[in-house]
Write a structure and sequence with these properties.
The protein has two helices and no strands. The protein is mainly α. The N and C termini lie far apart (56 Å).
């Protein structure tokens, strides 16, 4: 993490550095939440399709 701080954030002024860090954290959280919601939605769709196929072929 110190390499990341030194080479990415090290040359920025303090106010911009905190804004960039905040933006990166918010962006990563948004991506993680979006991937999690997509995963749950895909699992739900697979479960519904599986249930329908079991009704038709059982």
């Amino acid at each position: 993490m110190s390499l990341f701080d030194k080479y990415f954030f090290g040359y920025l002024p303090e106010k911009i550095r905190t804004f960039v860090r905040f933006f990166c954290v918010v962006f990563l959280l948004f991506l993680i939440i979006e991937i999690a919601i997509t995963f749950v939605f895909v699992v739900f769709i697979i479960a519904v399709i599986s249930k329908l196929l079991m009704r038709f072929f059982n």
